[in-house]
Structure formats: structure tokens, C-alpha cells
């Protein structure tokens, strides 16, 4: 990950590194299967794309419901055990997916996955905000992305070869990585809930619910627009592999190198890009990153060969390296200490909502308008979102909203 990244993290607490290495282990396992899940379900059930992409909507709806519940739980009961339960249940879902054989079974498992998968990310992001001072958060979240992407650099490339011969084995690896990380958190992590900062004073009621977050206009405008950005992202991550296989004969073992390219680029350049991006107002940075997303998806519609699709992934990754640490840090810095779980749960909903919209619309568009239509649509969404972030940046009037992160 480079000397600069290691030097940057020397002062972080031990628990940060537990999350860092545990996240790496779990990501290696889970990323062996998720890029190929659409292909797996489609081929196992022998159904067209539009008949299975609605499973992502089931996943998203469950995620919406449980993310709202989890935010209050995380802020009141703590982060640690929510993370453990999420990781263990998510691992078991992969095991049962290897056994599923009907659409109803996959729908049920997608509902369970949607309910429990987001809980880890919400709790972990809140824990990170507890552990790391505000001035160091963008670097800490960037380091955590390095952990994720080292895992993704290994997982899909290895998983593509394994899945081409045995999807069951790939599912078992995914299960093992998640459950092992859950056991690490259970055994070694300490609770970080900052109760002393916001315990109710005598005669006062501790704040509950999402009212404060939902009334935070800058935050909610950011959430609404970032959801559009995530729609573009979900179209790529869910439909890219099946698009390449069905239209260009690019099989799983070859496709696996595209997510690996994404991961290696993040590994090599994330900290360098973060060091430059954090000098600028976050909403402007988000506008630039989303604009690049749109261009990347549009370029897929024009691609005719593996090198062209590889170049599209490179372009997409540049946008991602700008967007993801910036968006997470922006959320953490807006959130009051006693509302971090709630703010992070709403932030996590952007992916859940987007994954319920993007793949479903992409599958319908593929079957009705042609295979290139999702990429043209994704480009339009990305460009519109970029324009909206730029408008929000110009309308921002407070120092808190526009100061560099």
C-alpha cells in the first residue's frame, strides 16, 4: 500500500488496524462471488436478466427498513455487536445461496442479505468516526478503502477461476471470510460508543429517531443527489459482468481482472488522490468524481473489445477514488456525536436505494431497448448528478458545508 500510507496510519489506535486487516480478510472472501452473482442466478434458474434483477430490489427494500432500525440501535446500544451479527449472518447467507434452487429461495436470501449486509458498514463507519479525530478522518477512510481494494484485487481474479469450475467453493470462501472477521471483532474489538459526550442531562430526554438528520437540509440534499451517483455505480457493478459475457463472450475468469484493476489502482493511487482532493470543498470534489463516473459508463456503450472495457474501468476507478472517501467523510463531519449511527445509516441507504433502482431499470432497458441502453442511461444519470453537486456547491453558504475536508 506504499510507505506514505503506512506512515500516515502510524498514530491510529490498534482497533483501527483490527478493522483494517479484518476487512481485508472478509473482502477477499466476499469479492470472490459478488461480481458473478447475477450470472450465477441467471444460469442456475435459466431466466432472462429482467426476471432476476428485481432480486436486487428485494435486497434494497430490506436494506432500507433495517438500516433505519440499525441507526438508532447503533447510537443507543453500540457498534460492536451489530457488526458481529451482520458479518456472521451475511456469511451464512452465502452458504445458503450455494444451496438455493428456486426464485423464491433466492428472493428470501436476498431479503436477509439486504437486511444484514448494510449493518456492518453503518456500525463500522460510526466506529471509525468515534476512533479518529475529524481532521484525520478522510485519510482514515481512504486507508480503509485500501484494505477493501486489496481484498478486491485478490478476490475477483481468484473467484473468476474458481467460479468457472465450482460456484459452491466460491460461496464457501465468501462465507468463511465474513464469519472469521466477525469472530475477530467479537474477540478483540472494544465498544466505542461515545456515551460520555451526549448522555442526557438531568431532566432532559436523550434524542431518538431521525428527526434531526432528516431536518438537516445540506445533508439531505447531499443524500438525494448521492443516491443518483450510486445508481450509476450499481449499474456497472451488477450488470457489467453479464453484459460482457452475453454480448462479447468475455467469461468470468477474464472479467475478474476488471474488478482487480479497480482494486490495484485504488491501492496504488488512493492516498495520492485523497491528499489532493481534500484541499478542495467536498461538494466540488463530488461533482468532479460523479462527472467522471458518467463518462466511464458512457464509454462502455462504445466499447467493442476487452482493452476498451478495461479502459472504462480505469476511468470509473478515478471517479470512485474521488467520490468514496469524500462522501463518507462529509457525512461523518456533518453528524453530531450522538447521531453518527443515524447519519451513517441514512448514508448507507444511498447504495441500498440505488441497487434497487439501477439494476432493475438496467435489466428492463436491456430487454426492451438493447444491451447498450443501460450504459447510455447511466451516463446521463452521472452527468445530471455531477451538475446537481456543482449547483449545491455554489448554493452552499456556510463555512461548515464548504470547508475542505
Summarize the structure.
This protein has 405 residues and is mainly α.
Shape: globular
Q: Give helix and strand order, one letter per element, not per position.
A: HHHHHHHHHHHHHHHHHHH
Main sheet, how many strands, which sense, barrel? Answer: none
- Poorly predicted runs are 1-7, 197-206, 397-404
Rg of Cα set: 20 Å
Q: What percentage of amino acids are in beta strands?
A: under 5%
Mean pLDDT: 84
Query: How much helix is in the residues?
Result: over 70%
Structural class: mainly alpha
Number of helices: 19
- N- to C-terminal distance: 22 Å
Number of separate strands: 0
Could you walk me through the main structural features you see in this protein, from its secondary elements to its overall organization?
The protein is an all-alpha fold and 405 residues long. Helix 17 runs antiparallel to helix 18. Mean pLDDT is 84; it is low at 1-7, 197-206 and 397-404. It is globular and about 55 Å long. The protein has helices at 3-8, 14-30, 37-45, 49-52, 54-77, 80-97, 103-131, 137-163, 167-188, 195-198, 211-215, 217-248, 252-255, 257-277, 282-302, 306-334, 340-369, 373-395, 399-402.
Highlighted features:
single chain, 405 residues, mainly alpha, 81% helix, disordered N terminus, disordered C terminus
How is the secondary structure organized here?
Layout: H1 3-8, H2 14-30, H3 37-45, H4 49-52, H5 54-77, H6 80-97, H7 103-131, H8 137-163, H9 167-188, H10 195-198, H11 211-215, H12 217-248, H13 252-255, H14 257-277, H15 282-302, H16 306-334, H17 340-369, H18 373-395, H19 399-402
Helix pairs in contact: 2-8, 2-9, 5-7, 5-17, 6-7, 6-9, 7-17, 8-14, 8-16, 12-15, 12-17, 12-18, 14-16, 15-16, 15-18, 16-17, 17-18
Amino acid at each position: 500500500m506504499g510507505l506514505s500510507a503506512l506512515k500516515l496510519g502510524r498514530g491510529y489506535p490498534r482497533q483501527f488496524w483490527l478493522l483494517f486487516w479484518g476487512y481485508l480478510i472478509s473482502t477477499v472472501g466476499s469479492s470472490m462471488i459478488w461480481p458473478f452473482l447475477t450470472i450465477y442466478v441467471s444460469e442456475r434458474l435459466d431466466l432472462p436478466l429482467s426476471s432476476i434483477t428485481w432480486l436486487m430490489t428485494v435486497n434494497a427494500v430490506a436494506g432500507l427498513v433495517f438500516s433505519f432500525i440499525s441507526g438508532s440501535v447503533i447510537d443507543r446500544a453500540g457498534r460492536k455487536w451489530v457488526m458481529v451479527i451482520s458479518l456472521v449472518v451475511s456469511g451464512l447467507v452465502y452458504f445458503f445461496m450455494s444451496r438455493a434452487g428456486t426464485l423464491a429461495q433466492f428472493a428470501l436470501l436476498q431479503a436477509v442479505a439486504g437486511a444484514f449486509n448494510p449493518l456492518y458498514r453503518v456500525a463500522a463507519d460510526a466506529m471509525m468516526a468515534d476512533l479518529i479525530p475529524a481532521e484525520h478522518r478522510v485519510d482514515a477512510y481512504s486507508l480503509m478503502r485500501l484494505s477493501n481494494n486489496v481484498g478486491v484485487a485478490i478476490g475477483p481474479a481468484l473467484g473468476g477461476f474458481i467460479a468457472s469450475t465450482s460456484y459452491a467453493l466460491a460461496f464457501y470462501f465468501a462465507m468463511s471470510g465474513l464469519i472469521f472477521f466477525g469472530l475477530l471483532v467479537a474477540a478483540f474489538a472494544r465498544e466505542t460508543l461515545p456515551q460520555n459526550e451526549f448522555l442526557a442531562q438531568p431532566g432532559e430526554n436523550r434524542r431518538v429517531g431521525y428527526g434531526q438528520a432528516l431536518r438537516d437540509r445540506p445533508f439531505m440534499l447531499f443524500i438525494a443527489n448521492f443516491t443518483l451517483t450510486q445508481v450509476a455505480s450499481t449499474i456497472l457493478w451488477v450488470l457489467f459482468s453479464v453484459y460482457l459475457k452475453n454480448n462479447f463472450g468475455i467469461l468470468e475468469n477474464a472479467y475478474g481482472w476488471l474488478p482487480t484493476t479497480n482494486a490495484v489502482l485504488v491501492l496504488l493511487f488512493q492516498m495520492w488522490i485523497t491528499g489532493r482532493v481534500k484541499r478542495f470543498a467536498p461538494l466540488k470534489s463530488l461533482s468532479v468524481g460523479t462527472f467522471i463516473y458518467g463518462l466511464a459508463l458512457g464509454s462502455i456503450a462504445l466499447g467493442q473489445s476487452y482493452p476498451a472495457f478495461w479502459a472504462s474501468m480505469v476511468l470509473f476507478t478515478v471517479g470512485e477514488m474521488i467520490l468514496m472517501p469524500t462522501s463518507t467523510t462529509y457525512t461523518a463531519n456533518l453528524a453530531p456525536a450522538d447521531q453518527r449511527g443515524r447519519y451513517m445509516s441514512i448514508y448507507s441507504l444511498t447504495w441500498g436505494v440505488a441497487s434497487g433502482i439501477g439494476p432493475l431499470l438496467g435489466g428492463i432497458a436491456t430487454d426492451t431497448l438493447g444491451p447498450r441502453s443501460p450504459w447510455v442511461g447511466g451516463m446521463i444519470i452521472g452527468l445530471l448528478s455531477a451538475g446537481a453537486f456543482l449547483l449545491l456547491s455554489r448554493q452552499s453558504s456556510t463555512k461548515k458545508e464548504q470547508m475542505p475536508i
